[in-house]
Amino acid sequence: MKTRRRTLYALCLLGLAAVAALALDRLVTPSIMPLLIGAALAGTLAGAPGLFHRRVWPVAFVLLPVGGYLVARIALPLPPDVDGIGGQLGYYASRLGLAAEILAQESTPIDLARQAEVRLLMAFGIFATSGLAAFLALSNRLALAAVALFLVPLGAGVTLDGSDRAVWLPVLFLLLSGALLMLSRTLDRTHWRPGDTLVAATSAVVGAVVAVSLLATAPVAAGGPWLDWKSWGEGPDDGATSLTFDWRLNYPGLLEQEEGIAALRVTSPVPSYWRANTLDLFTGTTWRDGLSRAFPLSAYRTADETSVYDIPSPDQTTRGRTVTARFRLESISSDHILTVGTTQRLTVKRALPLRFAEDRALRSDRRLRPGFEYEITATIPEQRSSDLVGQGRSYPDEVTRYLTLPFPNAAAATSPGADRAWQAIVARTSSGEEWRPLYGLNERIVEDATDPYEIALRIERHLRSPLRYEYSLTPPETGYRSPYAAFLFETRVGYCQHFAGSMALLLRFNGIPARVALGFTAGELVDDDTYLVDTTNAHAWVEAYFPRSGWVTFDPTPGRRVPGEGASSTSSGFSDPYQEQAAAADDAAAAPEDSPAQARNAAQDDSGADTSGGSSSTTPTSTWLIWGLSTAGAAVAWPVGRAALRRRRIRGDDAEQRFHASLGAVRADLADHGVRTSPSDTLLDTARLIEEHAGLDAYAVARRAEEVLFGGERATDRDVSRVSVLRRRLRRRLRARRGWRRTLLAAYGLSVGRLAPLPQTVNDVDGRRPGR
User: Fold this and answer.
1) In 3-state terms, what secondary structure has residue 158?
2) Which residues have CB under 8 Å from 39's CB, separation 6+?
3) Cα 64 from Cα 71, distance rounded (Å)
4) How many C-beta atoms lie closer than 10 Å to residue 280's C-beta?
5) For 160-173, what is the mean pLDDT?
6) Is the pLDDT of residue 772 over 80?
7) Exposed, middle or buried: residue 532 (CB in 10 Å: 0-12, 13-18, 19+)?
8) Same domain, 345 and 413
9) What is the full DSSP assignment across 348-394?
10) Distance CA 675, CA 697 (A)
């Protein structure tokens, strides 16, 4: 085994480990790429002793645990009070268990500043994966098993991230996997030629091109994060129709139903939004839940054997009405407790493993099934619009994290020419390029307003204006990575997630803490104080923070109204100090603008063709063209690649090597067409098979091959030419016997069934029975 091939083989495996590290790094913030790359390198070296000498592979059993311990010490230093090797291992085992629990419950990217245990899990996980893969591929030549191992961290990275598209990661993974698998076939060969490299590279590139082509046929899936929005989605539950809080499906799948599926039944003296949780982290592309940490809740038993959970009170209390609401899940399978207002107490029949998040969401470690009932005691805020005026911006420290954006806010540029100055600043951020118009748009919305409540009303009113934005479950496709940037700057068409996410973004841009709330609207009143909520009531709205009032609900989605007596936003219909004086000027400024629907209608000619500019989606014709080209390319590349592999040593300079390779190709041609040969067959046995199934005399070639292989004679170019002529005649005879369909299958290496021998009366081409 040559050193060069061995080095390339190891580098391909190390490249796969680096790709896995890059994928995992997308799950956390801030980046820990140096740590993960170091762990990948350490794991690869610890599992690779067998690469240097086949008999020393057991050394990996010593290096892997020692390396894992060192990586753990670097990723998460030990506290001073942990002594002894047993105590240290116990500490790390408990931290890994906690990190796994956090990763299962929290959404990505996970903030390592608050959850350092995840840093340990990531580093140890990539070390263990790289080490085991290196042990399999480098020490034991099991390349395919190593590739399968790396699929685990790669799949986690590209399906759970909240950042930009990650198509390049799986494409690079395909290229490196193809190279690794091809190199693994050549490690024990004596010679290695450039043709082998060409075949390996071509196969890997063809696989990557086909993968990219397939992704291009699904532009929605390939155009953003692989798990894009967090929402309610439909899913099976014990064979029955139900809802699952699975984060991967969009609201349109629920809202566009003609008849919704009953989700829950609520008995409450006050209608409200039934809230599940919030999205509080904006990544530059989409909203995720990543800022609110959850803490265990304990219950106490009452005399009637029910379990009661007292919910911690918020730091900022507001006046309101205390109500008791009863919930029954009709078809929801959920790990979140739907709540109302500011929850004070939860009462259930049996104790649950519950967690209380900082955003006041209640999460169960055990999934709640249809038929589950519980009771909520809560305070419904009763606030007047005038109460929210002039509260200032003195936000508590724990609230300031709800101001976080991946680019500077409006205060970053206040000098003359602020718009241009801000664009220059944001262009230097990783996710700011497509947000350059945000400063100018915000200036047009906010104008001279400085009070946070007035700013919130102006943003809400701007988004609810039918002259500016249109509600639709099928917004047009664009070239933007973020659906919110596309909604604000180009399409102006979207549904509740677009409206709520855009308002929360604009509020933070103006220095007002905000987050996106998820859950259901009140539903249909079916009895006294009883509301039936179905899937079409799934909704997203906005919560903004005011120093003396706490979190206040706003709803920028057209056609929605904040229900209940304590509604504070302009969408509720209550008058406020700013609404009357601003409404006339606001509508007048909007009047000259065409609505999105009017703009699209104006862009269509008399024939109905859309002539408007902007990004266009992949048409059905181009989609089928891509599918066709991809399929045709794969269909051509496969037999061509097989033929190239078979000819790779026949075209060398060494006649001896080409002669051996030609003889092997004869056996391969026979096997392709259903003539089975055995490794124990002699050359004369192979010549007999050629005579029986193709009617050709190959005994002269067989005798010459025996002289070369066993008689000590040297092969010549004439010997190679004789075998080549025999191969051409053999393939022609076998194709004639098999027919074009089975010959095509043989080209792809597919089974064509055994070929029966020729009748004994069939002679060679010249009509004479071949002699021995």
Assistant:
1) helix
2) 21, 71, 75, 123, 124, 126, 127, 130
3) 10
4) 25
5) 64
6) no
7) middle
8) no
9) ESS---EEEETTS-EEEEEEEPTT-EEEEEEEEE---GGGGTT--S-
10) 16
Cα 745 versus chain centre, distance: 36
- Collapse the DSSP code of 665 into the 3-class scheme (helix H, G, I; strand E, B; otherwise coil) and give the result: helix
The more confident residue out of 206 and 180 is: 180
List pLDDT tens digits, range 585-631: 444 444 444 445 444 444 433 333 333 333 333 334 444 445 555 56
**pLDDT computed for residue 215 by the predictor:** 52
Residue with tokens 């993960």, as numbered in its chain = 36
For the purposes of burial, counting CB atoms within 10 Å of the CB of 59, is it exposed (0-12), middle (13-18) or buried (19 or more)? middle
- Tell which of 329, 355, 385 closes a domain: 385
**Rg of the Cα trace of the chain?**
34
At position 526, the amino acid (one-letter code) is V
Question: How far is residue 321's CA from residue 565's CA, in Å, rounded to a whole number?
Answer: 9
Neighbours of 627 (CB within 10 A): 14
Quick check: 229 and 288 in contact, CB under 8 A?
no
CA–CA dist 179, 176 (Å, integer): 5
What local confidence, expressed as pLDDT, does residue 441 receive?
A: 93
Rounded Cα distance, 357 and 340, in Å: 15
Can you give the pLDDT at residue 182? 74
Between strands 354-357 and 320-329, the pairing is unpaired
For 336, the enclosing helix (H) or strand (E) is strand 332-337
Record the tokens describing residue 574, joined without a space. Answer: 């209550």
Residue 609: inside a domain: no
Do 75 and 159 sit in the same domain of this protein? yes
Query: CA–CA separation, 772 vs 767, rounded Å?
Result: 16
What's the domain range around 503?
Answer: 396-516+540-565+575-602
Residues 44 and 125 placed together within one structural domain of the fold: yes
Q: How far apart are CA 40 and CA 24, in angstroms?
A: 11
Beta-sheet pairing, 110-111 with 287-288: unpaired
Q: Give per-residue pLDDT as tens, 435-457.
A: 889 999 999 999 889 999 999 99
Whether the Cβ atoms of residue 125 and residue 76 lie closer than 8 Å to each other: no
**With 70 as the cut, is the pLDDT of residue 729 above it?**
yes
